[in-house]
Amino acid sequence: MVLPYFITSFSSFPHPQINPFSSSLSTISLFLALPEIEPFSFNDNGVNGGTSVRVLCTIIAGDQPVNIKWMKNGEPILRRSQKIDETTVILSLRQLQLEDTGNYTCVAQNQAGSAVHSAALRVKGTVFVIT
Questions:
Q1: I need a labelling partner for 51 at 20 to 30 A (CA). Which of 4, 31, 44, 76 fits?
Q2: Are 121 and 108 in contact (CB under 8 A)?
Q3: DSSP 8-state secondary structure symbol assigned to residue 50
Q4: How many angstroms separate the CA atoms of 100 and 30, rounded?
Q5: Cα(25)–Cα(22) distance, rounded to whole angstroms?
Q6: Mean pLDDT to the nearest integer, 64-74
Q7: What share of the chain in percent tops pLDDT 90?
Q8: Per-residue pLDDT for 111 more than 70?
Q9: What is the average pLDDT across 23-27?
Q10: What is the spatial distance between Cα 53 and Cα 69, in angstroms, rounded to a whole number?
């Protein structure tokens, strides 16, 4: 698999390892790998209200450091997520309600750029039968 790369140049500092006898400025090109997110999904048949789901956003390739965040319907999720390590953030949704239905997106960003992966969560309502 070939990963996309981003090229950036820095040209404002002397680099003694290129020419230790020169004080002139050198240009160095760095090849940085974009983050790659391991695909995740929710149950295609939907999830019952009142239950819980947990989903991982795991970075399987790309240069560090990587900033990982969760979004729902394009808006940042400020709670419910926890960083496990430098490459994994878990989203925990407890006591699901109908309003938790939506499109959940993991966004991973490093110096090369960003990657996203999304999955739809459908919460099914509970039907009570009164006899």
A1: 76
A2: no
A3: T
A4: 42
A5: 8
A6: 97
A7: 69
A8: yes
A9: 60
A10: 17
